[in-house]
Amino acid sequence: MAAPKKVVLAYSGGLDTSIILKWLQTEYGCEVVTFTADLGQGEELEPARQKAELLGISPDNIYIEDIREEFVRDFVFPMFRANAVYEGLYLLGTSIARPLISKRLVEIAAETGADAVAHGATGKGNDQVRFELSAYALNPDIKVIAPWREWDLTSRTRLLEFAEANQIPIAKDKRGEAPFSVDANLLHTSSEGKVLEDPAQDAPGYVYQRTVAPEDAPDQPEFVEITFEKGDAVAINGEAMSPATILTKLNELGGKHGIGRLDFVENRFVGMKSRGIYETPGGTVLLEAHRGIEEITLDSGAGHLKDSLMPRYAELIYNGFWFSPEREMLQALIDRSQEHVRGTVRLKLYKGLARTVGRWSDASLYSEAHVTFEEDAGAYDQKDAAGFIQLNALRLKLLAARERRLKS
């Protein structure tokens, strides 16, 4: 690959991406543009600007953007319409953020005339795949630089030596090895590595950042009502809110009640197993509520088809194929199913659990007249069930008759 002339770097302002910034300048002699995204990670972003300027980046080449609304509206909410869960447990908090970051990297590259983008994902993880598949899907000619796969800075000691040699500020707590690695956005926090690498050992309490321990949560339950339109949450307790505001509020409520903790050993796309601690308080509440409103508004055939396709949809997101035609095809099917998924769900939040306790909608398919144990005024003729059972039993009878015949 020819040396790039200008590179757009996904830049957090932390030590690793600051080292990458300087390495790009020294290794390739190229101009660097930094992109720092506010995805709701809960950190001040202005220090990233100051750090970039300190490392010689022109103010015109520093992009810091609040993309929380786009993140929730165009990525998180479409995913939640599918009730997407990877390997039965993981709500895909890291996975769903990567395509948006890649999208902006590619867009900024086009705006600034850059011929390459760069990221700080390691060669062992999933994120390198997600960043790069998304980038290539959006611009097949873009160059992608992954320093962790190229450089010889293979230990924390060598990274720190490089930082010191290039006058890169090192926070005091970075001089030792970090106890664990954290990724965060508005949907979740993800903690991996070091003290978490032995899956037999309980995770220390200090790993958790967004949720209280369920046993320390309030002793009184809290009830919350979430209103949906076309499968997306639009209001909490009757108050209309934007997508990002809704998720922020649900994070607050879920975290307060110890909801959304997950200790999970997952199968990475690159082939290894990895243990992570995830906190998805608002997402866990939202998933429960969305299933609650689908219970009364989604036809059984549509719902069962959705559920059967969901693992494939979730796997596509986990593996980095958000911008693939197959994910978009599945999304079209999912979105069509949500046309009448509207109404309100009442949930009980208590000691680590979010449970649906009520749901209502003007588009409800629930008919009390048909399911009542009382007199149904002719809404359902129970005699009809006999023929239904006989027709469904026919092939089972034929199979059983054959087995009896062959044994005789």
Top keywords for this entry?
408 residues, five-stranded parallel beta sheet, single chain, five-stranded antiparallel beta sheet, Rossmann fold, Argininosuccinate synthetase, chain A, domain 2, 12 helices
Q: Can you describe what's shown?
A:
The chain has 408 residues and is of the alpha/beta class. It folds into two domains: 6-76 and 93-177, Rossmann fold, CATH 3.40.50.620; 182-298 and 340-360, Argininosuccinate synthetase, chain A, domain 2 (Alpha-Beta Complex). Helices cover 40% and strands 19% of the residues. The chain is built from twelve helices and 14 strands. The chain has helices at residues 15-28, 46-54, 68-81, 98-112, 127-138, 156-165, 243-256, 281-297, 300-318, 325-337, 368-371, 384-407; strands at 6-10, 31-38, 62-66, 116-118, 143-145, 181-184, 189-192, 222-229, 232-236, 239-240, 261-267, 273-279, 343-350, 353-360. The strands form three sheets. Strands 3-2-1-4-5 form a five-stranded parallel sheet, sandwiched between helices. Strands 10-9-8-13-14 form a five-stranded antiparallel sheet. A hairpin with a 5-residue loop joins β11 (261-267) and β12. α3 crosses α7, α7 (243-256) crosses α8 and α9 (300-318) runs antiparallel to α10 (325-337). 36% of the residues are buried.
Brief digest:
This protein is 40% helix and 19% strand. With 408 residues, the protein is of the alpha/beta class.
Number of strand elements: 14
Number of domains: 2
Fraction of residues in β-strands: 15-25%
CATH superfamily of the largest domain: HUPs
Q: Name the helicity range.
A: 40-55%
> What would you call the shape?
elongated
Based on CA atoms alone, the radius of gyration comes out at: 25 Å
CATH hierarchy, class of the largest domain: Alpha Beta
- Mean pLDDT over the full residue set: 94
CATH-defined architecture of the largest domain = 3-Layer(aba) Sandwich
Low-confidence stretches: none
Oligomeric assembly: single chain
**How would you classify the helix and strand content by structural class?**
alpha/beta
Topology as a string of helices (H) and strands (E): EHEHEHHEHEHEEEEEHEEHHHEEHH
How are the strands of the biggest sheet laid out side by side?
Answer: 3-2-1-4-5
Largest sheet: 5 strands, parallel
Looking at the structure, the CATH topology of the largest domain is: Rossmann fold
